[in-house]
Amino acid sequence: MVLYLSSQQHTNLLNFMAEQEDALPVKKMTGNFMLKQFVVYDMRNFSHCTELVLDRIAFGDEDGDFAHAIEEFLTMYNARVTVICEGLKEHDPLCRALLDAGVGNIVTSVEIGEMQEEIRQSLGSRGMTRFSPRERERPEAQGEHYRFTAESVRIAMVGSQRRIGTTTAALGFAAWLGSVGASAAYVEKNGSGNIPYLRDAYEMDEEAGGFRLERIWYGEQAPGAGFHFLIEDCGTMDMETEADILLLVCGTKPYEIVHTMNLLEKYGTKEAFIVCPFVEKSLRDTYEAALRTDCHRVLFLEYQPDCMDGSPNAKVFKNIIERYIAWD
Hints:
The chain has 328 residues and is α/β, with parallel strands linked by helices. The chain folds into 2 domains: 2-122, Rossmann fold, CATH 3.40.50; 149-326, P-loop containing nucleotide triphosphate hydrolases (Rossmann fold, 3-Layer(aba) Sandwich), CATH 3.40.50. The chain is built from 9 helices and 16 strands. It has helices spanning 35-42, 63-76, 93-101, 112-122, 166-179, 195-202, 254-266, 284-291, 314-321, and strands at 2-6, 26-30, 51-55, 80-84, 105-107, 147-148, 153-159, 184-188, 205-207, 210-213, 216-219, 229-235, 245-249, 272-277, 296-301, 325-326. It has a 9-stranded mixed β-sheet with strand order 9-10-11-8-12-7-13-14-15, sandwiched between helices. Helix 2 packs parallel to helix 3 (93-101). The longest helix has 14 residues, at 63-76. The mean pLDDT is 89.
């Protein structure tokens, strides 16, 4: 998602993006801002954004403070920054400060059409190539980290029976998404009442009718916009509405198969991933051949002892949401 902080003068400047089929969605905020305050107090609500576009005249910061706030932002968030500053010259101190901060996407044209073309370049995979910003040295991220082209993607997880591992898989999926740079919401739709226990055990902060732990929000009702992914833990309940991705959590033991087949028949014509926990590796080919259909793809979950650690199933989770990863 593109977060655009705009002045009244340029409030419609990014409207042209709505006409592009592959354009990221734009969240626009119009008004007068102090960038340092916004980064410290407000940006965490938009931590899922992959592009930040700043209209310079919307900010009351001095030039040096403005550039410094951007530098601080880039140490905290994994997003590109584009600055709109009409008429800025390369020899101007602000231009030099932006380049030193690591910003190469600087829109300087004064004609609307030319400004929009520079914005289009800035938001492209290569960014603006006209300037040479300072290469920033960042601490190595622990494990993989991605940018996502996703906005409120609904992932519904339905179990074939109780205690099959649906909640453990859903919590692990949400935790993994947060660990690789996505913002996610875990929505408890199964009525189990587990969230208060998670809140107390992990000392979560209360937020927007639910609770937050780092990049993950936990609650019983789907939150508003502002997340890459919504993980809906349906338990054995039916989905209320269509999901973007459907996961059917199924058992393969003799006393579980009857429940598995009932669930697969119920969702027989819907595109879905069948995810099976606790399957011996030597038997996986057999179960995959038995359960796979034109609509259903079979994946196997590894043992996940900690419900809030999705790393044992990182490959499976990545496989499921790979089409939403920006590979530029």
